[in-house]
Design goal:
Rossmann fold; alpha/beta; 17 strands; six-stranded mixed beta sheet; 14 helices; 2 domains
Amino acid sequence: MKTFKIGGVHPAENKFSADQAIEVLELPKQVAIPIAQSLGAPSKAVVKKGDEVKVGQVIAKGEAFISSNIHSSVSGKVLKVDEIMDQSGYRRPAVIITVNGDEWDESIDRSEELKTDINLSKEDIIKRIHEMGIVGLGGATFPSHVKLMIPDGKKAEILIINGVECEPYLTADHRLMLEKADEMMIGIQILMKGLEVDKAIIGVENNKPDAIAHLKNLCAKYSGISIEALKVQYPQGGEKQLIDACLGRQVPSGKLPIEVGAVVNNVGTAFAVYEAVQKNKPLIERVVTITGKSLKQPGNYMVRIGTSVNELIEKAGGLPEDTAKVVSGGPMMGKALNAVDVPVVKGTSGILLFKEEEARRVEPTNCIRCAKCITVCPMGLEPILIAQYAENEMFENVENERAMDCIECGSCQYTCPAARPLLDYIRLGKFKVGQIIRNRSKK
């Protein structure tokens, strides 16, 4: 069974919601839609207080090269354009809309008909994906149109679709592969046309045998697409690890996947691309897993962007009394929320409720030089060394130890017997080194 060659861990899977079909969450009474929901420059609001908007209408434009448009996920009146607390705990600009009915922009095809013919040219595909605000839905939220714009001197050879969903607890991608597989397959063909490649591989871990079997059956209908069943090993969903597992190619330090002829997209992104290109539908909703060991009704929901996380929790049975931490994303790479009255955004793959015994951090002790963190690092780094340099503000050393190659998977901290906060210090080091690099480039 294929997997990546360096490092990796095996946390408990806890996929409690894997058998729960996707449900559509009821429309909220109000949404707060942040105008910065992708990597790159924030978008610029193009609506104001009192404006009437429809579902799918542009409310913020991404004018920079690496940026994305933001669309209204509801119809109603703009209450205000103001700063709100986002999932990171910072106040960010957002468009707050009071919901009135559910009136969609007339250009959006809302029919259930599967549209198989791909009529747009490569250039028009890229333009449409840009206009519809499609970003990577695996968590990174990199604007998808940029991935299709291959730099001069480089050539894409193969598209890899990430159906791994290696984070414990999360099942949104799993359900999407079971319930929206045809749409996803056409989305993959659209991406292949945009990249001018004739081959795509969907990588899926073998803990999803139903999804693997379903997709393999469909492959006969869609030329050039194959399924690769992969060994269960975290963080298989990292794009460099996925390329290694599927192709046996290693992306060089500091380089992007295109260096080895690959482009990686998530299954959720492929589905969003289908809706954008074939249905003219912007990215206004996404599948979100809501789960936790004490939660009454773990499930997978199609949620409008801007809906409060609290409404999702209420739908799943309410906040359990023993909840000590609420995490956006999975337990390995997700971020703890300061509050639950924050909006679901394009990058929200899951909401995870931790009990006290799961959330409580063990008091760290001295490093015993066991080298487990080095053994499990999928990027071949020395996490303890980077963390110690960052702790002591030796940021030149942090950079020299290739901290910017860290994918922040948390394997080092997960496996550390001394409970050292390795990832916390590495993130600090990366932030400081990033500042140093940007300042250096300005000179």
